[in-house]
Design goal:
The structure is a homodimer. By secondary structure, chain A is of the alpha/beta class. Helices cover about 35% and strands about 25% of the residues of chain A. Chain A is built from 13 helices and 15 strands.
């Protein structure tokens, strides 16, 4: 008798997990066999290229993804207007050491930081002072006056999660210009954000603090940072000439691109899956974040291909302007709130097109526990880690609506080779790993759709 | 009272795991900060290059790794003699379609399979017959007589573990020549073992069955295999001219290279950690298996660097001839048995220098359970999967001695881009991922050494 009771008890559970197990197998199978995600990424990277907010390429990417979602037969595809900053890099930057006793004059590999003001056509020349990070600014204080501050903080190689190492080191890039300007510095140079020693400068955004004069900022490659640091130990009057013609123009109209599969049972409950369509204005924005965009579109394509009719409303969203403003993510949440939409969950893929290893989450314990119950359905695909905290930059603004925020977490050990550089090109993304990420997103929204939250 | 008992009960466990946790953190920290493993791999790949058994480069690799282990101050470093096959590729191979109505004459990207006999300088010309795998040989039977058999079996893209997909598909490469020869085929062509569609042929060993005539065999790239298959659907008298001058010479003397840290408490208990030093005679053998070799040496270097005195005897072993004979692995086990050595565990890294995700095991349930208890010590480093079966080719012969066999299991999604090709070069290996693998091996032998089995 006991046995029978036990069996009866198990039946609903078995059928739950078995049917889901089968459908998830189909989702991965469809993606690994038929998905065009690698080819669509090729088009985005090779035919359009990098696409900073406000650029013609960003406009082309809006149109391309709109057409792509239309071509897949999504129920609705539309553009959500959003005003975005319009920063332009201008001419090739110069960061030139002018008076090295050992090496004479030489140029370093450099890129202006995004949002930075330019030096103007004459450039600036100044003595260099090296700091290991923002912490040292207060110690030096007035000694920074008239100097060009070289922030040489490193990503900690012993931190396994290199997004965490990045998070700890990136403050000097974000705030270094304002903090140094407070004490009268002329300009700043920042060590590129990567564990590698190489010749590739990494751009990325800075933010100017209010009421402090805005000074120019550039990144230099890690090899140049190491060399400069060695030279400074021997010669403390070393000077650098920096020339950048970048500038922030007037905000410009752009769009989030949204494609929707309408829910059959609970159409008012929305599940968003997306990436950010803009990229830095170097390389091709392949890992950051062409991959996430193409995966998010493919996640819904797979529903169509397998004939899965969602219960809830699924949206593939291409957020605009993650890199230097987050205006797309903010607008999306603002409209959602104004319309009183019910966003139960949002997933973002913005950590590169690498092999997926897990999902991070931000939300209530109840929401997270429910998703963690599905973990065993993902482990056969190598997606095992559901313990990390965090969602994604673009979905962050949805948090006040009570939305569960989910981030696709791939293997990011190679991510900072490419991040914000000329090296972030289509060839840096592996077809199979990209597909596994797309399938993982598709499987997650399938479960969210079927089970609700 | 109950609480006190519980606490007393917990103390030994806590101190066990805390001290191990700390030491493992040091091992990863040392490796990620100071390890020369990426530079030693560069030397092996760039200064020596590919190193098929019997080649001068294989001899150079023996000497290089002997010196490297000496330079790290291992207690003993010695060579273990082993006779190995000596196969040579000869001149650039030709696989030429001679009579395509659509395309005329064209050459395919090809490599002779390892151990294959050559066609001789005149080559062979024959009509092509396409089979999807070994299963079809019996169906065709005598129809294969005088033909050149084209095995076009594919790796299944829906199998997530692509070593499994490889394992299922590779039989046509290993046995296709003998199976086709049994019915009078002149030669065989095999589709390269990769999920990718590209122009890179993958070599690898075949084995001739006794009492069957030996016929030449080549691999062609997947793009060529796809094209050929399309052409054959339109024209069934398509002919191919194959020319290879490879040959198997007399066996030659080579060596396993062994470096040892002597145990302080149980020196008679041996833990081996290694990779195979030979590679195919294309590319640089970077992922297969220069990475594993350099990681295995580095795993012991880390003990020296951290001043860890092992209780048991630790050996770093460079096995010779995994690719086309396994004579090194066999000799190692034979000598171990003859000397009555007690090999408690052996770890092999032979799945590429990619980010480690787990350890596979072959051994008793008791042995495996003990190692699985340590799993939580590895998860902070992303090494989570301890459930796979298997050790490694070179350590397989130790199984009869009751040794626990362990394989380092990295992310292998990109492995079959490089495997046995010209593309398997130093640049295909990421420094940080390589280091994480070395540290994982070092941490595993640390636990095996401390806890025994």
């Amino acid at each position: 008798m006991k046995k029978i009771t036990l069996l009866l008890f198990l039946i609903p559970f078995l059928s739950f997990s078995q049917s889901h197990e089968e459908m998830i197998k189909k989702i991965y199978g469809e993606t690994l066999t038929n998905s065009p995600v690698h080819e669509t990424l090729r088009t985005l990277c090779k035919d359009i290229g990098h696409r900073l907010s406000g650029s013609p390429q960003a406009a082309a990417a809006v149109e391309y993804t709109r057409q792509l979602m239309e071509s897949y037969g999504f129920d609705t595809v539309y553009l959500q207007p959003v005003m975005v900053p319009h920063w332009v890099r201008g001419e090739q930057e110069i960061a030139r050491i002018t008076n090295s006793e050992k090496l004479g004059t030489f140029d370093m590999k450099t890129l202006a930081l995004g949002n930075s003001v330019g030096t103007g056509p004459d450039g600036v020349l100044g003595e260099i002072i090296e700091l290991s990070g923002l912490d040292e600014v207060e110690d030096y204080g007035k000694k920074l006056e008239g100097k060009i501050v070289f922030f040489n903080g490193k990503m900690d190689p012993t931190v396994i999660n290199n997004f965490s190492a990045y998070g700890r080191a990136v403050a000097q890039r974000a705030w270094g210009a304002s903090d140094a300007a407070k004490y009268g510095a002329k300009a700043v140079m920042v060590r590129s954000m990567t564990n590698r020693l190489d010749d590739i400068p990494h751009t990325g955004s800075l933010r100017y603090k209010p009421l402090i004069g805005q000074i120019p900022a550039v990144a230099i490659s890690t090899n140049d940072a190491e060399r400069l640091s060695r030279l400074l130990k021997e010669q403390d009057d070393l000077k650098v000439y920096i020339r950048t013609t970048c500038e922030m123009k007037e905000p410009i109209l752009s769009y989030n691109v949204i494609g929707e599969l309408r829910g059959s049972q609970f159409p008012e409950e929305i599940i968003s899956v997306g990436g950010h369509l803009d990229s830095w204005d170097v390389g091709e924005g392949a890992n950051d974040d062409g991959s996430g965009c193409m995966q998010a579109i493919d996640a819904l394509r797979t529903f169509k291909a397998l004939g899965i009719q969602p219960k809830r409303t699924l949206r593939s969203v291409m957020w605009m302007n993650e890199e230097n403003g987050l205006m797309g993510g903010r607008e999306y949440a603002k409209v959602a709130e104004q319309k009183g939409e019910k966003h139960i969950a949002a997933i973002e893929s913005d950590a590169g097109g690498f092999r997926p290893l897990g999902f991070s989450m931000s939300g209530s314990e109840e929401q997270k526990s429910k998703v963690k119950e599905w973990k065993d359905l993902f482990t056969p695909y190598g997606v095992w880690n559901f313990e990390q905290e965090g969602g994604g930059a673009d979905i962050g603004p949805l948090q006040p609506l009570g939305t569960l925020l989910i981030g696709l977490r791939p293997n990011t050990q190679r991510y900072f080779i490419y991040h914000h550089t000329n090296a972030d090109v289509f060839e840096a993304v592996d077809k199979r790993e990209l597909e596994l990420g797309a399938a993982s997103m598709s499987a997650m929204i399938y479960l969210l759709d079927q089970e609700g939250l």
